[in-house]
Design goal:
By secondary structure, the chain is α/β, with parallel strands linked by helices. Among the domains are: 102 residues, D-amino Acid Aminotransferase, Chain A, domain 1 (2-Layer Sandwich), CATH 3.30.470; 134 residues, Glucose Oxidase, domain 1 (3-Layer(bba) Sandwich), CATH 3.50.30; 309 residues, Phosphoenolpyruvate-binding domains (TIM Barrel). Helix content is 47%, strand content 17%. The strands form seven sheets. It has an eight-stranded mixed sheet. Helix 14 runs antiparallel to helix 15 and helix 15 packs across helix 20. The chain binds adenosine-5'-diphosphate and magnesium ion (2 copies). One magnesium ion binds next to loops.
Length: 888
């Protein structure tokens, strides 16, 4: 008989952390904590295989499950000496969901299950606290009805508000046992009216209803959206954990809280967390009461005047710190934990690797090496390459003037400016129209995920550091200020107010998620610091990395940024960008429109000094590092004068009339310029263009080599070749120019001629091309377009549908299509190396900065990847991780 259920508790467990795929993260870690002697209320986990079975078999359970659940439940009853449904000493349980990857708030937990009209009396007697028992029962009715029976949440809140009003109180805590009894009566009546049948009193029906609801929630819209945003496959499924309840709401010696073993915002090695006395789990995150800090340090730092757990419950605090140390050493990573204290006894309810900002992620990895917990290699594996992006972008300029509107909690660091919107739906609509928005809510809930994702920043007026907004924003790397309580939001009027200042929908504000400040208007930013922990980590990255990382850069600014971010050369310098400058475009147009070679040469002669100066600047900045310069590539129409005024200007400059210019423009029109007269096709038809460019490059190289003493080795790259013949022709032009330049300079230097591989035919003919080419650079943007027959500029219309329908997994222009485009690259690598073993191989498309694509480049043995300057550190880290994985 297959095993579907795994028990834990009492220092033992059938599962373990290694069984995460089967038991989900929560179930696996509860088992692991039990095993290592951390106090965990006993329970059992129904495996993810049951979820898979459920969905592949028309929502039915596998054979044997009922019996295994009954047996496991009996085990819990025996361990605790209580019985499920017992009128005198009833066992209560929670039913919790947990997938392989954590999906915070995505699926709902039901607490206090097992209460009914009879067991509630038993609970009241056992606890000697009728108020607590009725409060627990009404919470259960509320949660169960919402999560399992689908009765709308707000209906319960309306009833509760009425009862409080009638009783003349404002806080839940002021309601008496009798009040709660009344609430229960009204809840039950309301549920019966809504559903046409009474709230289930049978505890078995309750438990199976909850189990079914957890499996059902795997397919709810929130979960589907979250999975799509995070690339989690549907096939993983969720596990269900049934666990005996412990109560943090049985009095003043009870509490519940959440804690991080280190500060999740900064990464500082300081225990961090929040708790509430006399409260049940959900209360801390729900933001209903203001949570208190665990430590005195945290309390002081956040300016809270509520007492810390360290002060209120010192010995339990010490116990918690002890468990913190045990868990962190055991998992060798920062943990995010949930705990509950029932009448002076501490219980752990969850642990997992904590979500953190990227700054914290870097600091924790570096600190853990210093502490001897991790090796440098392990530390390198700990940081998500894509996440580094956040560190490379600007933060608020501390010197810039600002008008602070309000202050909240620094919930997720980083600076963000944008226009205020008050609903997640508006955020999505505005963002689609290209607006940068700040989603502003009283508090967020899982339905808001889509809107949070497209926002520059998130602002809430209620909730703490562990509120939904804070946790989700940190996970997304989106700046967030939470709990800015001075702000009053008026959803109806679409505005918010702080004292006399009113901010309306569409007004611009700035958030500083590192300080909690909310500012009016846009505040200027400064560039980030790359030393410190970041520098240490990147040092280790470079030690283990085997592929080089270059940047795609053409301007001095790009080149300087690239160097600052650690680029080891330029992998793609596009020369056409240099011609768009207003001072040059006119000569460029003159050249294009000239009727004969003499006319073209005259115009090119005017361009030569500019082009030479560009390369002098670039070579000087790059200090002898390799620079690959691509000769003119785009279709000429991109340079053409299209307005009357521009055409008149060109006519005047080249001494012809406007009519002639118009006719020339018309003649150059192409139906499909992407596949038209471009790339080396320009060089073949007008060799003088490439001749001028080669001269500019080589003269600049000679000059910089002479003046700086750094030998420049230019790599001249011919775009869009289909085979060897084009390359041979262009190389001949370059070699002739080189002889002339060297003769005139009285010196020679090494230069290389190579080609871009960006047409399938070139990949296929790589063996032959390599007879001439000293390097290949895979131009994967065009290679993807030409291999898939898909224009990057037009694919937006159908790619998203292709993704949804599963035709493609990801956007092939963002992540390399390894099966198709990758296969051509592999083939070209093999054929090229077979001809010329020393051939230098790199990639220069957008993919060079995409971690998955970088890993592919490592696997096929490329020498380098080249990407945009801001992605260089990401590519360095991705390359290091790929090298470490390959070495394993
Ligand atoms: P989530 O994945 O949304 O965090 P959890 O299953 O962790 O959901 O539960 C939600 C809340 O209920 C948490 O605060 C947790 O500590 C609390 N909780 C869950 N199970 C129990 C239990 N057996 N006893 C007491 N509190 C519980
Ligand atoms: Mg939890
Ligand atoms: Mg190209």
């Amino acid at each position: 008989m297959a095993k579907w259920v795994y028990t834990f508790g009492d220092g033992k467990a059938e599962g373990s952390a290694a069984m995460r795929n089967l038991l989900g993260g929560k179930g696996a870690n509860l088992a692991e904590m039990s095993r290592i002697g951390v106090p965990v209320p006993p329970g059992f986990t129904i495996s993810t295989e049951v979820c898979t079975h459920y969905y592949t078999n028309g929502n039915t359970y596998p054979e044997g499950l009922k019996e295994q659940v009954a047996a496991a439940l009996a085990g819990v009853e025996a361990a605790l000496g209580m019985r499920f449904g017992d009128p005198v000493n009833p066992l209560l349980v929670s039913v919790r969901s947990g997938a392989r990857a954590s999906m915070p708030g995505m699926m709902d937990t039901v607490l206090n299950l097992g209460l009914n009209d009879v067991t509630v009396e038993g609970l009241a007697k056992r606890a000697s606290d009728a108020r607590f028992a009725y409060d627990s029962y009404r919470r259960f009715i509320q949660m169960y009805s919402d999560v399992v029976l689908g009765v709308e949440h707000h209906l319960f809140e309306d009833v509760l508000e009425e009862v409080k009003r009638d009783a003349g109180v404002t806080q839940d805590t002021e309601l008496t046992a009798e009040n709660w009894k009344g609430v229960i009566q009204r809840y039950k009546a309301m549920v019966a009216a809504e559903l046409g049948k009474p709230f289930p009193q049978d505890v078995k029906e309750q438990i199976w209803g909850a189990i079914g609801a957890v499996f059902g929630s795997w397919m709810n819209q929130r979960a589907i959206t979250y999975r799509r945003l995070h690339g989690i496959p549907e096939s993983w499924g969720t596990a269900v954990t049934v666990q005996s309840m412990v109560f943090g709401n049985m009095g003043e010696d009870c509490a519940t809280g959440v804690a991080f073993t280190r500060d999740p915002s900064t990464g500082e090695n300081a225990f961090y967390g929040e708790y509430l006395v006399n409260a049940q789990g959900e209360d801390v995150v729900a933001g209903i009461r203001t949570p208190q800090h665990l430590t005195i340090n945290g309390k002081t730092r956040h300016g809270s005047d509520l007492p810390a757990m360290e002060e209120v419950m010192p010995s339990l605090f010490t116990e918690l710190v002890n468990i913190r140390n045990i868990l962190e050493m055991h998992y060798k990573d920062m943990q995010d934990m949930e705990f509950t204290i029932q009448q002076g006894k501490l219980w752990m309810l969850q642990t997992r690797n904590g979500k953190r900002t990227v700054a914290a992620s870097v600091k924790i990895a570096v600190d853990m090496v210093a502490e001897g917990v991790l090796t440098k290699e392990q530390a390198v594996m700990r940081v998500e390459p894509q996440q580094l992006d956040q560190l490379l972008h600007p933060t608020l300029d501390p010197k810039a003037p600002r008008t602070v509107l309000a202050k909240g909690l620094p919930a997720s660091p980083g600076a963000a400016s944008g226009r205020v919107v008050f609903t997640a739906a508006d955020a999505e609509t505005w963002a689609k129209n290209g607006e940068k928005v700040i989603l502003t809510r009283i508090e967020t809930s899982p339905e808001d995920i889509g809107g949070m994702h497209v926002s520059q920043g998130v602002l809430t007026t209620r909730g703490g550091m562990t509120s939904h907004a804070a946790v989700v924003a940190r996970g997304m790397g989106t700046p967030c200020v939470a709990g800015a309580g001075e702000i009053r939001i008026d959803y109806k009027a679409k505005q918010m107010r702080v004292r006399d200042t009113v901010v309306k929908e569409g007004d611009t504000i700035t958030l500083d998620g590192s300080t909690g400040e909310v500012m009016l208007g846009k505040v200027p930013t400064i560039r980030p610091e790359l030393t410190g922990d970041f520098g240490s980590l990147m040092g280790w990255v470079d030690e283990v990395r085997t592929m080089k990382v270059r940047a795609n850069a053409e301007t001095p600014l790009d080149a300087e940024t690239a160097r600052r971010f650690g680029a080891e050369g330029i992998g793609l310098c596009r020369t056409e960008h240099m011609f768009f400058d207003p001072a040059r475009i006119i000569s460029m147009r003159e050249m294009i429109l000239a009727r004969n070679e003499a006319g073209r040469r005259a115009a090119l002669a005017k361009l030569l000094p500019y082009q030479r100066k560009d390369f002098i600047d670039l070579f000087t900045i790059m200090k002898g590092l390799p620079v690959t310069v691509r000769l003119l590539d785009p279709p000429l129409h991109e340079f053409l004068p299209n307005t009357e005024a521009e055409q008149a200007e060109v006519a005047a400059a080249s001494g012809v009339d406007v009519g002639a210019v118009k006719a020339a423009v018309a003649a150059l029109h192409e139906t499909n310029p992407m596949l038209g007269h471009r790339g080396c096709r320009l060089g073949v038809t007008y060799p003088e263009i490439y001749e001028m460019q080669a001269r500019a490059i080589l003269e600049a190289a000679v000059e910089v080599s002479k003046t700086t003493g750094n030998a420049v080795v230019p790599e001249i790259m011919i775009p869009l070749v289909m085979g060897k013949i084009e390359l041979d022709m262009m190389k001949a032009v370059i070699d002739t120019v080189a002889k002339e330049v060297f003769a005139a300079a009285g010196m020679t230097l090494t230069y290389q001629v190579g080609t871009m591989i960006e047409l399938p035919r070139a990949a296929l003919r790589a063996a032959e091309i390599a007879e001439t080419a000293e390097f290949f650079s895979f131009g994967t943007n065009d290679l993807t377009q030409t291999t898939m027959g898909m224009s990057r500029d037009d694919a937006g219309n159908f790619l998203e549908i292709y993704r949804q329908k599963g035709v493609v997994e990801t956007d092939p222009f963002a992540t390399l299509d390894q099966e198709g485009v990758g296969e051509l690259i592999k083939l070209a690598v093999e054929r090229g190396r077979a001809t010329r073993p020393t051939i230098k191989l790199g990639i220069c498309g957008e993919h060079g900065g995409d971690p998955a694509s970088v890993a592919f480049c490592q696997s096929i043995g490329l020498d380098y990847v080249s990407c945009s300057p801001y992605r260089v550190p990401i590519a360095r880290l991705a390359a290091a991780q790929a090298a470490l994985k390959q070495a394993k």
